[in-house]
Structures are given as C-alpha cells and as structure tokens.
Amino acid sequence: MASEAAELVFDEATKQYAGRPEPAVDQLSLTVPAGEICVLVGPSGGGKTTALKLVNRLIELSTGDIRIDGTSVKEQNVVQLRRGIGYVIQQVGLFPHMNVEANIGTVPRLYGRSKDWIHGRSQELLELVGLDASYAKRYPAQLSGGERQRVGLARALAADPPLMLMDEPFGAIDPIVRSRLQDEFLRLQTEVRKTVVFVTHDIDEAIKVGDRIAILREGGRLAQYDTPATILEHPADDFVAEFVGADRALKALALRTLDQLELRPLDGTEGAPRLACDTTVRDALALLVAEKRDALIVLDHGGDAVGTLTRDDLLR
Amino acid sequence: MTPALASGGGPVIPNFGQGSSCEIHNGWFCTDWVRAHWGDTLQPALVQHVELAAIAVAIGFVLASALAFAGFRFRLLDPPIGFFADFLYTIPSLALFQLLVPLTGLTVTTVEIALVSYTLLILYRNMIEGLRGVPPDALEAARGSGFTRLQTLVHVELPLALPAVIAGLRIATVSTISIATVAAFVIPEGLGRPIFVALEQEVFKTEILTAGGLAVLLALSADAVLVLAQRALTPWSRLERRA
Known about the structure:
heterodimer, A: alpha/beta, Rossmann fold, CBS-domain, 2 domains, 6-stranded mixed β-sheet, B: mainly alpha, MetI-like fold, 75% helix
C-alpha cells in the first residue's frame, strides 16, 4: 500500500460515447500536483463526473491518457488500480449489511489485512473523521447523513491511497453540516496530504475546498484551470466570469485572511470590534457593515491586539 | 367411501378393533387413541413428513439458486425461467402425480419431483428480487473500491439478497409441508397417510385432527426456526426497515 501522494496528469483525455454528437470529455489536459486538491466544477453536462470516473476506469477513455505518478491507468490491472484510489460518492454507498468497522475495512480486507489490523485502523480513522470509537459497531441505518459521509471518507482513506476521487461528496448534506464537513475535510487534508480530485457543481464549495479549480463547460471542454484567487480575479472569458458569479469580487475577499494585510499601528481605536487574525476579509467586512463601524482591531493567535485595519484597507 | 358421518345419531365405530368409548363414539379428540398410536402411526408419519418436506425444499433451493444465478447474470434467461417456474406452479398437484406415475411409478421420486416443482417459483422469484434489490450506490462503491465481479457477488450482492431469499424459503417451506400431505396418494408416507386412513374408516375425527394438527404445528415451527435464522443472519435488515 502506497501512502505518498501521487501526481495526476490528464493528457488530452477524451471520452466520446457512440452516437453522441459531442464528446462528454474533450481533450482534457491538466496536472494535479501531488498533495493538492483539484476541484472539477461546471454546469451539468460539463463532464465533471465523467472526467473523474475516467481516472479509476469506471468509464474507459476513448483517446488520450491519464497518468498517476507517470504510470498510465490503461497499463494497470483495473482492480489493482481501483484498490489504490480512494473513492467517495455522494450517495456514500456504505454496505448496509456491514457495521462501520467492516465498511471501513473493505479495501484492507481485499488486501488480506487481519481483523486486528482492520480494528486498529478503523479506530484511528474514526478519530480522524471526528466520530467516536463506539461508532465502529453501528450499522449504516443507525447513522445520520453527515455521519455516513464521514464513514465513507474513512473507508476511502483506509488503505492509505495516494489519490482520492470524491464525486460531490457533500452534495446530499444539509448546508450547516455540509460547511462543517468541508472544514473538517480541509483540516484532515492538512494531516493526510492526499492528491484529491473533487467534483462539485457548487462554485462556493469549489472556492473553499480547492487548491486549484478546473472549470468545465458544456461538451466537456476545460474553460479555465487555476487557483481560486486567479479565477475570481482574472476569469479567462465571459463563460467563467458568469459561472463564478457577479459577486466574484466579494468571493475573492473570502480567500484572504486579515493577517495577509498590512496592519496599521494601534492608536485611539480602543472601542473598535476585535477580530482574530485568521478571520477572512469577507467576514471582517460583513461585521463592519453590520455594526456600521469604520475600523477593527486585529488579534494575534494569543489574543493580543497587534494592529488595526480600516474599511478601505479591507477593500484594497 | 361412505358419507362423512352416518345420519340418525347411531355411533360410528372405526373398524380397527377394540377401542375406548371415545373411539367408539368417534369423539373429536380421543387422548387414549393418540397415546396408543403415537408410536406406531403418528410419530413415524411425522418423521416421514419432515423428511419429504426437507428433501424437497433442499433440492428446490439448490435448483432455484442455480436458476437464479443464471437469470440474474444473463437477463435474457429470466423470462423463460420465470415462465417455466410459473407453469410448474399452476399444475394441480393431483394432476402432476397422474402425469408422473407412469414415468417414475408410485415412489418417493414422484412425490419429490412434484414438491420440488412447487418450491421453484417462490424461491426463484425471491432470489431474483433480492439480487436486483441491492442498492445501486453500494454496487458502485464496491466497483470503485476494486471488488472483482465474484467478490461483489459474494460480499455484497448475496448478503444483501439474504432477507428476500429467507422470506422465499419461509413461504416455500410452509407450503411444501402443507402440500406434502397429498403425497399419501402416491406412497404410504407422511402425515397425509393417517388422514387418508381415517377418511377410509368412516372419518375417524381424532386421527384427522391429530395428523392435520401435527402438519400445522410442523409448518409453524419450521417458519419460526427460519424467522430466528433470519434475525441471526441479517441483524442489519430490521434496522434498515426502521430507518
């Protein structure tokens, strides 16, 4: 079982279904560096899920290639290939007849791991995805939607694959739990550092989760592939600008935190609102607007005031 | 055969020798007769009945499993197999015996062929429904996780089909136990045997009631055993239904 994150390369990957005028995925070329999250986003019909499934060959390429750490997926035994890739889907797909531990142990069992090993690993993973160890003996029917998706994530991570494919993993979960799962997924990613391909139709989720975003348009063509900040600040064309939304300038504010701005010295602003330095610029601005204030005090991680920012500073 | 109960109120005397007054008056349930004939009539009939039914359900299960795998794997085979099982099921059991006796004689084989025929439809249909009822997301997860076709069948499809399979087994078992009483038309075995004898002998009510009652009890017990087996084997299925 490998554990180092892998580099993933789409090389003119194309899927053309017989009898369809347009390809589902059209000469998609992009590189996901090892350990980064690449979000595939776009309108329905953009071929996001198709592109994802080309990687683990649930759908076979028509032309072009996809390479994981330099090895073409076409050259690998399909079963071995899939066991080496974590796979998370929207409907989760937990096995209803297996308890949580057995579900998590699915792929390690295929590798012939012992019961003890699987028990230990599932305890470890339950903690990693924020579930109590007592969940090991529960059945999927006894879990909430959010808990099921955590178990789905743990199952995908069980064999410590270098690459994870996530197909709208939080799509069926209510907004509050969804936002929390996104946060926890990002925290988890700082620990496990997998290469992740993440499909969503939600641009806000893409901006929040992605190190890079690939925007696909109808006919499976790549419209832009870049960091969230670049896509928001410099959309490649009208399609991308429209897709990311008229409020893209505001969305861009959510990508920066207060400690990335140049602070003014503390002087005579004692009564101003006090915010932690990892607050996003967007949240800080929202607070100033809501409280009708012109400036705020920035606190460091220890809670000490380190400087101030005006409303104009935030918008600069 | 004489009419069921002699009219005129006179006592009906079973023609098998000396009996108690309950027997002489053809009481509904003569405990002394049951006690006297448990060992030579009722118990052997019960054991034979269990054997007839168990063999039929076991063979039916094996055949239906083979057919179900074929019908599940190759969808084109499902309609003809289903039609064949349907057809067997619709033949009245007495007619089937008549058809089989010239071929296989007055033997256990004749009886078992008929009994097995009736289990096929129920078992086959339930197995197919069970296999097709596996949630598609579980299948996708299995495929995406690197299960082979066989591993998917063994570790995902079969266990998830089990509740439906056992439900079919319950119906097949209960109906086989019931139909097996008719086997006495062909061979002197099973709980149908004492019932036939009692009918020939001026309808001896105790014997009919006891043998019939044993068949009912046997069916209920077999059903209870299968329910317990289902709970033990698929602890998750009740949770699923509640969720």
